[in-house]
Structures are given as structure tokens and as C-alpha cells.
Amino acid sequence: MKLFTLALSLFVASSAVAQKELPLPSGLPPYGPDKPIQAPAVQEEKLENGLTVWMVPRSGFPKVSLILATVGGTSADPRDRPGLAQLIATTLSEGTKHRGARQIAEEMQDAGGDIATAGLGDVIHVSASALSARVFKGVAVLADIVQNATFPDNEVALAKRNLAGQLEQQEADPSFLASRAMSKVLFRDTPYALATPTKQSIEATTAPELRAEFARRFRPGQALLVIVGDFRAEEMLAQVRDQFGGWRNPSLPPVPLATAPTAPPPNAIFLIPRPESVQTTLLFGAFGPLRGDPDYETAQVANAIYGGSFGSRLTSNIREDKGYTYSSFSFLQTYRAAGVFETRADVRNSVTGAAFNEIAYEMNRMAATAVTDRELQQAKRYLVGIEAFRLQSQDAVAAVLADLWSKGLSALEIARYDKKIGAVTAADVESVSRKYFAASRMSVVAVGEETIIRNSLSPFGLSINLAP
After folding, report:
1. pLDDT digits over 338-349, tens only?
2. CB burial of residue 101 (10 Å; 0-12, 13-18, 19+)
3. CA neighbours within 13 Å on the CB side: how many for 155?
4. What's the pLDDT score for residue 34?
5. Same fold: 2-14+264-466 with 58-244
6. If you average pLDDT over residues 193-199, what whole number do you get?
7. What pLDDT score does 16 carry?
């Protein structure tokens, strides 16, 4: 509570500056009426083997985007094998029982598209794109990969070397170090703590292990196929049945869904020494709403006001007014079983303590004071506008739908988002801010020069520990 009390004690002295809104130029016309998002219509099907299929036919641009999502992302990795999902994803398209890596690449090029893979928190994605006129070729290649990947020994060895090199580069990035530590602080001994690989886990992973995990995680009963673009639904469904209908669920037990801690994280500072660093990376984190929670959209509006947009309170304070940082931002990240609210800023060493105080102050101001009508309307218009712009892209529509499914939500949520945002009131924002934004809820990771961090942050009265 000391952090909350110290920052809040500065509220009266600072409120006149922090609450000041720059006037708009005179003579501007009023806002026009809000236009509802034209959400895509989703046709839902389920094959006999349990594969869920969501199709969004959209005429016009002659391409099709596809995502096959299957339960078994990084949260399904064994505790001694963090990064296994990333290695599975990386090597999936490097060979099947019927196609070599080169043939896969050539066939996708001939279809006018490509293949991409990703190991995420709850799921593994295999994405494909193709020209509408050749999309069935792309569907066939995608189906072959997710059913028949073979993980050749030489390709696995190359992928391990590449991932080890990537990890070495990332460990020179303070933002990566902060995020990795925050995952461990928030999630402790639960699956979401396994967010990134380690050198030891990469070295220990073998091709046979990847084949076994592939057989366990890739099963139609725990998978979704999203198809968005210029195609005829009847023809596409027939092709999907032909290519995926023979996919069988293994006798192995299904991949368990991830769980998250129920106890709040500690209100403490976790230090990552980075000798000779000229700046400090500050990362504040706490649990937030799930994607399907009733207050999720309200929390998004509150976050846009606080730090999730360029005109936010936090940006206006520590970037525009005080010049402590070039960029600061906050965001809500959601998994199937957890939601996380984070704030990040890279600040000069000399203002480490001052920036820490202003971030805590802005959090407490959200928790303790009302938002203005102008802030509310700008945040809502910003969020709806960003979503409307994003849904113009076929790839983005496919990604949004795959994300909803991974969190156990209906495809209908894609059409409800703007309506829920539009219904948020100032009273709603005040309530959700009291619930999520108080600085006393936050764990803090600080990356930088150890002496500077300890000297700058010790006055706030929080324990300072080495990060896990």
C-alpha cells in the first residue's frame, strides 16, 4: 500500500496539470454519427471427426486466408521443455509423408500464397494464403502438413540452431527480459509461466520428441479451421471434407486446457541487473479480465484513456509533458484462462524514480477519479475505428476468429465488440478502473543498472528482489 499512498499523496499538487485538456481548434465540425462495424458473417460447420470449421466468404479481393488452430501452445509444454511449441511450429512445414520442404514451398508459391506457423500461449497456428483460383491447392498442402508432418532430423537440428540464436539475440533486449520475468512473477508455477524457451530446453529437444508431441497436440477434436476470402462456401466445404475428413483423433488423452493462479501477484519490485545500461525498462503487471468477461470491453476503454492510445493520459504525462520516455504504452493481453494488464516504459536512468512515480500516479488517478466525456468518447471512437480498420483485412479477420475460438468464445463475438464498446458509460469506466488499475495491485519488473534502480525505487517502500 505504500506505493499507492505515496503516489496518491501527489494527486492534489499534480491534478491541475494532469487533468488539463488541450482545446481543439475552433471551427471544427461536430463528430458525425457513429457507424456500426460491418462484421463478417460466419458460417459454422463441424466435421464428423470433430474439426470445427468457420467460413467467411467475402467476394472482391481474389485471395483466401486460412488458419488451422489446435490446442497445445506454449502452456502445454512440459516444465522442463519450455519452447517445445515453438519448435513444433517452426518445423511443421519442413516435410510431410508426401511432400518435402521444397515441394511444400513450391506448391504454395504456385498457389499464390505461403505458409506461416506460430506457437502461442494456448494454441499452435498454421496459417496459409492462396489466390482464390488456386485455393484448393493451398487447402491440400495445409491439410497434409497438419496431418502428416514428419519433422526430419536435419530440419529439426537447423531449427534448434536458429531458435538458440534467436534466443541469444532476444536476451540482449531489456523488453524481452522484462516480459519473460513478468510471466514468471504473475503465473509462478502454472502453465502460462512457460512463455519462452531456454538454452537447455532447446538443446535437450529431439526430433522423436517433436513427433510424439505433434501426434498428441494435433487432433481434429481440438482444432479449428478458419477460412476467409473470395470463395463459394459449398465448394469450399466439400474440399475441406475431402482433405480433412480422414483426419483421426489419436488414442492419446486430449491436451489439457491451461489454468492460472487464483492468488494475486505480489506488490513488489523485481530487478534484472543490466550493467552499464543507459536506461531503465519498467514493466508493471497485474491480472486483468478474461476476453469473455462482462467488463472486458469496459477495461479496453479504460486502458485507452489511461495508456493504450497515443493521446492517453500516461503518454501525455511522461512523454509529451515531462519527456521521460520516447514511448510508453499499456495493454490488455488475454489467454483462455487468464488476463493480464501491463504498462511498459523505457526511461533515462536519471528519471527512473520520477517515471515510476508518474506511472503509479496515473494508475491511481484512473482508480480514484472520473473520466471526462471527451476522454470517454475519444477512447470509444479510437477502439471502434481501429477494429473497423483491422477487419478490412482477410488475414486479420481469420486471426480474430481463431483468437476467439482459442478462448472458448463464439464466432458471434466478432459482431458484438463495437456494440459493447459503444454501450460503455463513464460510470462503467470508473468501476472497472477501481477494480484493475490501482498501483497497489501491480508487480513491477525493472531492467537496468542495479544501483540506479535500487537507489531510485527504494523510497517507494516496496521490496526489491532479484527477478525469477
Report:
1. 999 999 999 999
2. middle
3. 20
4. 72
5. yes
6. 91
7. 37
In 3D space, the residue among 353, 381, 360 whose CA is nearest the CA of residue 307 turns out to be 360
Total count of residues recorded for the chain = 468
- Residue 326 burial class via C-beta count within 10 angstroms: exposed 0-12, middle 13-18, buried 19 and up: exposed
Question: What fold does the segment set 2-14+264-466 form as a domain?
Answer: Cytochrome Bc1 Complex; Chain A, domain 1 (3.30.830)
pLDDT > 60? residue 5: no
Q: Domain residues of the chain, as ranges? A: 2-14+264-466, 58-244
> Which pLDDT band holds residue 409 (cuts at 50, 70, 90)?
very high
Q: Is residue 10 over pLDDT 90? A: no
Does residue 12 surpass a pLDDT of 70? Answer: no
376 forms bridges with which residues in the sheet? none
Sheet of strand 223-229: strand arrangement = 43-46, 52-57, 223-229, 63-71, 123-131, 115-119
Indicate the residue type of 208.
P
3-state secondary structure of 106: helix
Q: Does domain 58-244 have CATH number 3.30.830.10?
A: yes
For residue 50, the SS3 value is coil
Mean pLDDT across 310-328: 92
- AA letter at 119: G
State the pLDDT at residue 27: 79
Give Cα separations from 369 to 3, 182, 430 (angstroms).
18, 28, 7
**Alpha carbons 142 and 129: distance in angstroms, whole number:** 10
Long-range contacts of 367-370 (CB under 8 A, 24+ apart): 367/433, 367/434, 367/437, 367/438, 367/439, 368/8, 368/11, 368/434, 369/15, 369/19, 370/426, 370/430
The pLDDT value given to residue 32: 73
**153: which 3 cell numbers?**
532430423
pTM: 0.91
DSSP 202-261: HHH--HHHHHHHHHHH--GGGEEEEEEES--HHHHHHHHHHHHTT----SSPPPPPP---
* C-alpha distance across the termini of the chain, in Å: 23
pLDDT attached to residue 30? 76
pLDDT, one tens digit per residue, over 206-261 is 999 999 999 999 999 999 999 999 999 999 999 999 999 999 999 999 999 999 99
**CA 373 to each of CA 15, 295, 305, 378: distance values in angstroms, whole numbers, following the listed order:** 17, 19, 11, 9
